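Hey,
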Amino acid sequence: MKLESAEFTFEAQERNLRRIPDMIALLMGAAGIVVALNHILGLRIMGIVLVENVFLYLEMVLFLSITFLLYPARKTVSGGVPWYDWLLFALCVGTCGYLALNGENIVDLGWVYRAPVMATVASGLLCLLALEAVRRVGGSVILAVCAVFAVYPMVAHVMPGFLWAPHLDIGTVLREHALGADSILGQPIRVVMTVLMGFLIFGAALIVTGGGRFFMDIAMALLGRTRGGTAKVAIMSSALFGSLSGSVLSNIVTTGRLTIPAMRKAGYPPTYAAAVEACASTGGTLMPPVMGAVAFIMADFLRVSYADVAVAALVPSLLFYLALVLQVDMFAARKKLVVPALDDLPNVWEVLGRGWHHLGGLVLLTYLLIGMRLETYAPYYATAFVVGVSLLRRQIGLHDLLKLVRESIRTIVNIFAILAGIGMVIGALTFTGVGAAFSRELILFGGQNTLLLLGFGAITSFILGMGMTITACYLLLATILPSALVQQGLDPMAVHLFILYWGMLSFITPPVALGAMAAASVAGTETMPVGFKSMRIGAILFVLPFMFALNPELILHGDPMDCVLAIVSACISVVLVSQGLEGWAYRVGPIGIVPRALFLLAGGMLLNPGALTDSVGAVAGAAGFATALFSRARAEKPKPVAEA
């Protein structure tokens, strides 16, 4: 895949982006990456060792400021960068530069509590700049959330009940946000700049070097000649590419522009093809080894290694993809779709010969993450391997490297701006104490009813996910919700994964359904039908979080034998539910409404292992097969010929 594909990807993902001069992208991006590597790897370039807040302020100089050049003030604005955006760019550079120069004074002299007037003014400017940046990148909904929480500490003293907190004046609030360690410079930004940056660069490198096309070709070579092969190719390639890129939208427009037309050619309706791609790409960000930004922030919240998060997320993600594969296979069987001719499929050895280094990068990344537990260094080694081999094989050139830097900085700027704003939300909840108070109230509200608390968490995650990015949604909920659920005896890892899964559902669920919207655009069809079809195809995604929250064996937390039994039960459940959804059963064929209802009941019972539910599930499943076979036998029974 050449540059045109990579350019298409990012332009399709963020259509309101302005193009900025390559020199600015190159200089700012290279400087930001060098500063990060020096700090992360302890390179001590020119003997420089930075205090953490100085390092973060410098990265704001290099990345946050670019927001005002890259994202226009209004989507309708086109053309070059206007004077007021250059002014905001300069103001951001100057403000963050001033704070970087005084980073040690901020810590040593306690400027959060008492600071010079200039430092307080700079704090106010940084807060305003962060809010404007989050508006340009994330939109008005997330701006409203961030702005309300940013000023909340100033009015908390007049709020009722658990929302009350001691009064803080405007100067103190501004300094807490801009100079403290729990707000703009809090956990989200620290994780991005110390761990996640390398993975963002790795995702951009995959796109520029043709990783998307490679994963699609390898999936086509392996699965293309099976029943429903084109849809299975879409699922496998989106799972592989999405797992490494960590982005739903770039996954859809990178692999979807190839897989959706292929599915349509094989006989899948446009709406169904787009829905399959939307679901598969959404699931890619839940699939190890990379998953996305949230996985690394989750690891930091839980104080565990990223490898622990990846291992826990493996089985639920595989169950989701099992459901997708089964449904497209059953759909193809029910509709009697044709299998592509062998001449139309790529040869697996030719594909591996052309792009083995992408697969090698995946293996290397997985080994370093899971085997060596080198979360910080792994993406840089994997990026160097993929880009280095591509250069040696002359698959990319200097222009591609410039493209890689420019697209890397776009990706980093996007998440940097969002997290700077959402950091103010977390900061306000932290230094007012309202976050902890909310957890206490939630426990009182739900009592000992774990399902009620989970339902509340699911609804809240889904609603916030409709108007916010998944990272912002997770960060907000992870501050207030897990404590209450963990106190009910739920596994902490399962609780955090529960929040992540329900936040991701907004990508395939109307009315927003950004993933369905992107897939519908590629397929040339309407968004809402794709959204509703995505909900049906991805229905298992609605119940999986409850499954592993109530049964931590599904995230491999528990006795090994219990984990095996839980996984087997879940797999059987997925098969039964898929048969009920698609109206087709293995060894039977098309089935009617009664067997479908029985299969759905059986699958639902097996989702929650237990003596009673397993018994009901077994009886319902057996009854489903019996009624399906009886109906087929009646349909096949020859009718008597009337005598003349």
